């Protein structure tokens, strides 16, 4: 199980020569499947576009870096994917509501399985004062799914 905070800024190397490709800048989220689909890589050059490392690619994960195998290449991000932490259509910062319409919290981070991309839970905040008193809490998804309705997220069975 991983969170974005654990992989944020991790270097991505290519092949046995360990040529630095860039650093992990964000996660990609597929709205139709409800899973994390890969990592967005910020290239070393300031003029280079962000590229995408799908979870299905062949790479090795260590504690502090990712090593992409020789035969693999970074790809452009799919049109159906959305960024999780940055951009105008991001997942974080959005309110999650239950089926009765009550707000559960605001998304701060996601917990996911790095092999399949399945989201296991959402780290939620209820506001600054609640976080100081009780801290963040994690809403486990279990069999529940999260769907997007406009700017809001709805958690339902």
UniProtKB/TrEMBL annotation:
Coiled-coil features, chain-numbered ranges: none
Residue ranges annotated for the PRC-barrel domain, each copy included: 90-137
Protein name (Swiss-Prot/TrEMBL): PRC-barrel domain-containing protein
Taxonomic lineage from the root: Bacteria, Bacillati, Bacillota, Bacilli, Bacillales
